[in-house]
TrEMBL record:
<keyword id="KW-0456">Lyase</keyword>
<protein>
    <recommendedName>
        <fullName>Probable 5-dehydro-4-deoxyglucarate dehydratase</fullName>
        <ecNumber>4.2.1.41</ecNumber>
    </recommendedName>
</protein>
<dbReference type="GO" id="GO:0042838">
    <property type="term" value="P:D-glucarate catabolic process"/>
</dbReference>
<dbReference type="InterPro" id="IPR013785">
    <property type="entry name" value="Aldolase_TIM"/>
</dbReference>
<dbReference type="Pfam" id="PF00701">
    <property type="entry name" value="DHDPS"/>
</dbReference>
<comment type="similarity">
    <text>Belongs to the DapA family.</text>
</comment>
<feature type="active site" description="Schiff-base intermediate with substrate">
    <location>
        <position position="170"/>
    </location>
</feature>
<feature type="active site" description="Proton donor/acceptor">
    <location>
        <position position="144"/>
    </location>
</feature>
<dbReference type="InterPro" id="IPR002220">
    <property type="entry name" value="DapA-like"/>
</dbReference>
<feature type="binding site">
    <location>
        <position position="57"/>
    </location>
    <ligand>
        <name>pyruvate</name>
    </ligand>
</feature>
<dbReference type="GO" id="GO:0047448">
    <property type="term" value="F:5-dehydro-4-deoxyglucarate dehydratase activity"/>
</dbReference>
<dbReference type="GO" id="GO:0008840">
    <property type="term" value="F:4-hydroxy-tetrahydrodipicolinate synthase activity"/>
</dbReference>
<comment type="pathway">
    <text>Carbohydrate acid metabolism; D-glucarate degradation; 2,5-dioxopentanoate from D-glucarate: step 2/2.</text>
</comment>
<dbReference type="InterPro" id="IPR017655">
    <property type="entry name" value="Dehydro-deoxyglucarate_dehyd"/>
</dbReference>
Amino acid sequence: MAKYTPHELAAQLKEGLLSFPVTAFTADLEVDEESYRRHLNWQARQGVAGLFAAGGTGEGFSLSPEENAFVARMAVEEAGDVVPVLGSAGGATYLAVANARAAQAAGCEGLLLLPPYLTECDQLGLEAHVDAVCSAVDIGVIVYNRANAIYRADTISRLAAKHENFIGFKDATGDIEAVTRVVATAGDRLFYLGGLPTAETFALPMLQLGMSTYSSAMYNFVPEFALEFYADVRRQDRIAVTEKLNRFVLPYLEIRDRVKGYGVSIVKGGLKAVGRDAGPVRPPLQDMTAQDIQDLSDLIDAAGIRPAEAPALASA
Ligand SMILES: O=C([O-])C(=O)C[C@H](O)[C@@H](O)C(=O)[O-]
């Protein structure tokens, strides 16, 4: 039974940083229960407004429906008494509906609806997709505007008028005109969160567009830094934000951009770098090389943001 109504959930999420934890895997690429539970415990207790299990950084797209439900259940058990936990739903409509129902049954307060895969889709199909998911559950639903799921403002408004539990719009396009149309049309009926890769990079300009929060992947391994960054953004302290961009975020992007898919792999690399290994990524993503992890570890030290309780990386 959810503790938050969809409306209360939106009010809570929009006022703080959002955690998107990685899903821990063993060397055999199985879900690593012990390591995941440990990670969740750490992530939930640093001061975020909500925790999204099995999102993009959590490799939700690589989980079977059973694993997705298991991950959601573990997240609720480990973090649900501290922060609202949201699950994820993805793939074809029938799978997304099954994921959504399983997330609700696991005790999630809401869910992130990931884009479906492979096929192109347009507005009527996307509307039917969101319609089916929102109708299948009572908990809050946030759509992820990304890849092949790009929602027009009128589609979003119709869905918001129809479904009380449709509460949020997460953008990973950075298309200012389109996002402005969505925010201007749906207004306060929804809340808006930034979800571009390494969302910190865009946080200040997106705040002006109405995105009071964002998904922080780097919060996984440098939580204090990520929270300070968010506080600077909310204060609109451009000088502090720029200093942090130069000190860590922009050099981090240079490592992230070395290989396609490192947007996720670098987060697990960052966890290795701070001594909190959550295992490998699943193919088709590829793990960071030892050199890339070392470079990231050096950057963390040069920026002075190694988490207090995290040991330095043993030299290779
Ligand atoms: O679903 C997710 O993990 C994301 O939204 C992607 C990341 O959290 C992205 O915002 C980032 O890399 O900071």
